[in-house]
Design brief:
Helix content is 37%, strand content 22%. It has 427 residues and is an alpha/beta fold. The structure holds guanine and fe (iii) ion.
């Protein structure tokens, strides 16, 4: 057993923060939280305590939608909306990942920055390229970061150099599953394969059908994009006129909650699509920085929460301009307020604890018991030195609010994933 002492802050529920001033968290040898305590209990009196003084101890962040091969474009090319943006900037960059040496350069920096930003768990889109995708998985394993990694499938409406077949998706996904299982490190958070049809416009019915069979055969989770942009939705309607909604186009192939499913964006989800997401417990990944940059829209997060549809947060680089989940928390709060204003106060905006919960316990739930410090949860944690933001008289709630709005990666002094402290990965 290991015991850490600090100012502990987490969100067992969305409604409020749980706060232990100079409290203790005990972690088992398996890397699971045994309990949090205000006073050291008798059974831990002889345990050795690592004391982080006045620093904050918060759960690690979960980024549930991020495109690793778009890392070099992050913060660039924000002058187009989704469909022309994909064709002009994104597809040409992703084609370069046929070259493993190029992929290694970009992916090493990407993984390093995930670590830097305190993103202990992520759901990642790679590209259609098997070798580069395997490499990304291995780099995540070396770093000790937990992740789902997807070999992307796309076989229509894409450049010839960025197209694969259903057979290649099957072979590549099976290889990814096997090789990641073989190279996984004992005791560290798992890095696993996730089915990743890019989105309906990129995948023929035949490819979606193949994905559905893979999902069922191996019980693999699924990630894709849904109802992000008005023109994209109209295009899907013309490509798949028989599907009742965009979401139904995934559902009929077994890719919408038949196994655990992440759908990024959902800016325009309502009606029958919303009902289906609720019934199927499909998780919305809200990406407000990306939705601002690509002028996509404002996802109805409050409506999802009111309907019991699970919601997580994603950076979606390079639609998103930053790999920091802290920034996404901030944007989720601010966009929810613009939406509140735009609907004349019809829907309540998000609270700080709600947005923090989405980035920790809610997103973490896709990985099992992750994102909280309740007993049995994997100990994913960040030790944060916010002393330069702190003033005498601030409460811990004031301090977490200041950290969300003003803090950054430089304030993170220690990172733990699955109970292991993670050293800085090599670039
Ligand atoms: N839809 C299909 N591909 C993409 C992508 O790479 N980024 C975003 N934001 N939306 C997409
Ligand atoms: Fe995306």
């Amino acid at each position: 057993m290991k015991v850490y002492r600090a100012n502990i802050i987490f969100t067992p529920s969305a409604e409020r923060f749980e706060v232990l001033e100079r409290g203790y968290v005990a972690v088992t040898d398996d890397g699971l939280v045994e309990g949090t305590y205000q006073q050291l209990p008798p059974h831990l009196q002889s345990a050795s305590v690592t004391d982080y003084g006045d620093m904050l101890l918060i759960p690690g962040f979960a980024d549930l939608h991020v495109h690793a091969p778009q890392y070099r474009n992050m913060g660039l090319a924000m002058d187009l909306e989704l469909l022309p943006w994909l064709n002009t900037y994104t597809f040409p960059e992703e084609q370069k990942f046929a070259d493993c040496a190029y992929a290694e350069k970009i992916y090493r920096r990407f993984v390093h920055e995930l670590w830097m930003q305190g993103t202990m768990r992520s759901a990642i889109f790679a590209t259609i390229h098997q070798e580069a995708t395997l490499l990304l998985g291995r780099l995540l394993q070396e770093a000790g970061l937990g992740a789902y990694v997807g070999l992307v499938g796309m076989n229509r409406n894409c450049p010839d150099g960025l197209r694969n077949s259903s057979d290649e998706v099957v072979a590549g996904t099976e290889r990814l599953m096997q090789e990641l299982a073989a190279s996984g490190r004992e005791g560290y958070a798992p890095v696993q394969a996730i089915l990743t049809p890019r989105f309906v416009p990129s995948c023929t019915e035949e490819m979606l059908d193949t994905y559905g069979r893979l999902a069922q055969q191996y019980h693999l989770p699924v990630q894709s994009h849904l109802s992000e942009n008005v023109r994209e939705i109209a295009w899907v309607k013309s490509l798949e006129p028989d599907a009742e909604t965009y979401g139904h186009a995934y559902y009929r192939y077994g890719l919408f909650g038949q196994t655990p499913t992440l759908m990024a964006h959902c800016c325009y989800t309502d009606g029958a699509e919303l009902e289906l997401m609720k019934k199927q417990q499909v998780m919305v990944v809200h990406c407000p920085t990306s939705n601002c940059n690509l002028a996509s829209g404002m996802a109805p997060v409050r409506t999802f929460l009111d309907n019991g549809v699970p919601v997580a947060l994603g950076t979606d680089i390079s639609g998103g301009n930053h790999l920091s989940v802290l920034r996404v928390i901030q944007y989720a709060l601010q966009v929810s307020k613009l939406q509140y204003a735009a609907t004349k106060g019809n829907k309540a905006f998000l609270t700080l604890s709600e947005a923090f919960y989405l980035a920790t316990k809610s997103g973490g739930s896709f990985f099992g018991k992750v994102g909280s410090f309740e007993p049995g949860y994997a100990f994913d944690a960040l030790v944060v030195d916010d002393s330069y933001l702190n003033f005498a008289g601030y409460s811990l709630l004031n301090r977490i609010e200041r950290y969300v709005y003003l803090g950054d990666d430089r304030d993170i002094k220690h990172r733990f994933c699955n109970g292991k402290e993670l050293a800085e990965p090599k670039m």
